[in-house]
Amino acid sequence: MADLDERPHKKPRFFVEDSPAHEAPRRSHSASPSATSEKAPPPAQPADRSSPPTAGEQNGFDPETFRGFAGEDVSDSTIRILQNSCGNNLEQAINVYFDGSWKTTSSVPAQRSSIRTPLALGHSATAPDVKSASSERPSTETPKPSALTLSPPKRYIGALGVTAWTTRSGIGLVKPGDVVKIERTKQQVPQKGGKGRGGFRRTQDFVVRFTNTKGDEIGRLEKDSAAWISGLIDQRVCFFEGHCIYAPERVRTNDTVYLQLRCFLLKNVFDPGNFVKPLDSNRQTTFYEAQESTDERDLRLRQIGLVKLFSEINMQPSKANEMTVKHKREGLLQAAEIAEQYDAQKEKSTPADTPEGGSSPASEEAEDGEELEQDQLDTLYKKAQSFDFNTPEAQPADTFTMDLRKYQKQALHWMLNKETSQKQDHKEQSMHPLWEEYLWPTKDAEDKDLPSVVGQDCFYLNPYSGELSLDFPVQEQNCLGGILADEMGLGKTIEMMSLIHSHTSPEYQAAAKNNSIDAVSALPRLLNNSTAIEYAPATTLVVAPMSLLAQWASEAEKASKSGSMKIMLYYGNEKSANLQTLCCAANAASAPNIIITSYGTILSEYNAVANMSGNRGSHGGLFSLEYWRIILDEAHMVKNRQSKTARACYELAATHRWVLTGTPIVNRLEDLFSLVHFLRVEPWSNFSFWKTFITTPFEKGDFMRALDVVQTVLEPLVMRRTKDMKTPDGEALVPLPPRTIDIEKVQLSDPEREVYSHIFARAKRTFNSNVEAGTLMKSYTTIFAQILRLRQSCCHPILTRNKNMVADEEDAASAADIANGLADDMDLSALLERFDADNHEGDQDASRFGAHVLRQIQNDASMECPICSEEPMEDQAVTGCWHSACKKCLLDYIDHQASKGELPKCFNCREPINAHDVFEVVRHDDEEDEDFIMAESEGKSILKSLTNTEANDPEDDELYTSTQTPPTKTPRITLRRVNQLSSAKIAALLKHLKRLRKTSRTTKSVIFSQFTSFLDLLSPALTQENITFLRFDGTMTQKHRAKVLADFAQRPTFTVLLLSLRAGGVGLNLTCAQQVFMMDPWWSWAVEAQAVDRVHRMGQTMDVRVVRFVVEGSIEEKMLRVQERKKFLASSLGMMSEEEKKVQRLEDIRELLSE
Amino acid sequence: MSAPLPKRIIKETERLQNEPVPGISAQPHDDNARYFDVMVEGPGGSCYEGGVFNLELFLPDDYPMCPPRIRFLTRIYHPNIDRLGRICLDVLKNNWSPALQIRTILLSIQALLGAPNPEDPLNEAVAKQWKENQSEAIETAREWTKLYAQKN
Question: Rounded mean pLDDT of chain A?
Fold first, then answer.
């Protein structure tokens, strides 16, 4: 059956000319919408029944029919009033008529409906020029335009021309100048709240009819215009009045007719209550559901309709936000289209399909949105960084002890402004950026004056939501905080501290004043454990990653005049009793001014509160207070809005909310959403809002527009300066000493090369076979994992076998292992055998070093080697089971057994052993004092010393073995692991370090690797060279981290800090070092640069040298090339589309695997 | 044998001569220091008592990584020693360790004579006999000892 939405082709002409005849009786019964709504949908009806099953439902209210219902003769004027007040709704009109309420509305002038005089086309009408159109002017009472005091039920906004086609034939059915009614076919969508809505019908019913004054259908509007006009009629946004411009004298079915539609906005659309915002609250769980709800869909139709309408009638906003206006209309329509496509996709695919339309690879973590390419990020940031160097400065309070640089004072001013802005009266109310202002037209379609309404010269439209308003939409600044996104090293912490000092709550000020007079009030008051949230007027809550807690505390301490700030660390076991009691307003004078806590603590308390069924108050923890201020440091920690940590943070209550991050957007625009949501910036904190205006256009490929909108979001919220910003005088913001970066090429040893080649060949094979099979994108993860192995093998072949991979990469790698059978790869095993050694960490080993063992070893030293009979042994070495032999003999024997494919066993006790568990016995009798001191402060390693005093406290070696024994004549013995086959990179590093130690004995170095397992291998190598080192990684407790950092800063001597790229990439201040070694290249230089910036940041006074180790002729070299090209691309290309990105990635891989 | 003799072999040889083990002797050949003429006396109380067994012992190039090669020259009726004089002894095979020496190996062989192990036979026929009729087997061993292993 033909779909009647479509205009039939001319040829099959089977319509009966007088078909409406038997439709007519039916119409008169259809006054009740509920009765008709149950009828079968139109597609099920025979094709020739083209006239509407109902007509009286919404418009087209026929006076005769009305009189029939009323049962009495109702005067024309009364009917006109009713028509006006009821928007031509017959049913409503009848109700109004009978309950008498129409009389009260009768003061509303009736002239609007009496304008039956069209024929001039609207000024923007697109219909073809028809001469006869304007000639005739039926005379009607011309209303005298006068100012109205009340809004009319509908108000003219413009006219447009449309084409329509006839569904009947006949002579004089309609002629130019005739007024026609514009009607909707009955909507088939079930009643609101109806159950079992299984999504939407696939084909939407868009049919819009036009009828003669008697209500007989003449024809329909063309689908193009009907599509949106229908929505506006259905949702009672507009009333359309049709005027025939041109119709053939003798109308045949499917003839084209030109109509002018005059459009009126109905009064009720401006009622605030009338507009149902879809899913207004983010906290609704339904919010996360992928399905578009009926409301959302209605919203979309209404929105499209309005945008189309305004463009058709050429209504231009009299005021709009510059930023958004540029892309607005086409963008909105695009967004709507995309939503439409999603619908279609969703219906085709299974319900369990991904919400984002299944376009992103499944391997990604569950985050919304697509990743941004570096160049897009660059563009975005560049825009956000238009910092005005002439912004005013503010002086911090005198309790703040540090000197602020100029830009920091400017930041303080800005922040103070942000925090206090609401308190000032709205001096310059700015319009909400998403709204547009329109002037009501003063002339109607015939250029006659329209009555104005007092105080209502304009109205406002939010084209993003389809919302209309008569009131000025103020840009609400309900966020009393913002995003401080200064680049790392510019001193965000200090800037924040200056704010904490300089803006305190009035309650706290009052309390502090009282306190100084009346000492008694300083006594803490006990608070009855209230279940409500208490206001903590004195307290700023700082949430930071574990690794930065100590740093925050010490910087806060440093920045404050002693006694001016009470600082409290709140995490783990150091949580004190009841925060609520401590911080409540009554105790403001004694409450901590700064509480520093970790994201982990937030999360665990959040869970605890959730378990107490959300009773925050009685929990007494972090969630029981409303703080004066909250600061999220390194706020990209909560970039995933779906993560529990993020959700926990959203729940924290505070007057002022701040986030600090050097990267407000890490790789998705949604990252920013999470921050904005935390800050509660309306309306952006509403995700559907965000999605419509940012995510969707972005995914559609309209980057510039999405980024522009993001820009409008960011602008009032963000302060960001970068280190390379220059003041107008050309001075750097923070003058830093120069930094040199050298790339050191490393040659692999033969055995290393063998392993490398093996893995390389395998990766290449995988790649090629996928190229052939055309499954490249699908097996991206597999290939990626193999490349990971390849990179590891450049550091040390044994890493490829290590289980302690960087967590991110672990899953991918193990999945790929299984897929490839790499786990059971015997060839590789054989190659690796030589390197193989389970990497036992020192603790365990150290604990096994009893003094008697060492003594035994010492005694053995003088004995002959059981293998070669050398006496004494040459380079005594011991097995894990403490049996001594020459180092060479021992290793040879292990080799020998391994080469026979046997499990190496101890020559003495036949315990299984391996090369890694062989320890060299080092005698310290011939070393210089200097080295001796070094060796004494070894870090966490297997090192343990034996002197004639056996005072080795086993507790001591958690971090540092500190045997404070002065050198004596008895030779001291140290055991150190023998790295049978070290790696070329380790050797290169050691060479550098040794040279460095010789030339500058106080230099401190930082060594970064992305593989913590590689750091594990570096430790013994450093030990062997008596190089003092410390280690900092994600597995350490907060206490240890702090201790390590403090220790590293305080040591006067040559010291090395081992850092994992991940743990050390954020926040840390390592300016006490001057040398950086990057052991392995990362995919993007930006990440490495960030790590380097731990050292090369504010506070650094010396030149910084960076050495990047890169294995020659390996994938690492190629990674550098990829890094390089990406830098280049970012500047030369604009935004890339999704397709281009994929191609780009494949190119990267191809390049990495090229010979 | 152009390579210089490893210190280990020199030391072992010296020690074998300077501190001989009772009932065992090992004499390197003059022209080949890795080749030893070995003599082991049957342990007292065993069916080999009174016998003197000659063996040859060779230290391969990778000694002591590999065990010495050793075999009986004197015929012996023993479940773990075959007709060719080859010996089934774990320390000469999988359980070799470079910490073992000629001396310890020969002691092990002597111990093997004192405690035949028919469960892990090299000579099936002998082992079968040993298991089925141990006294007869022991008798045969005694006879063989008398027959073949008398000191000249």
Answer: 70
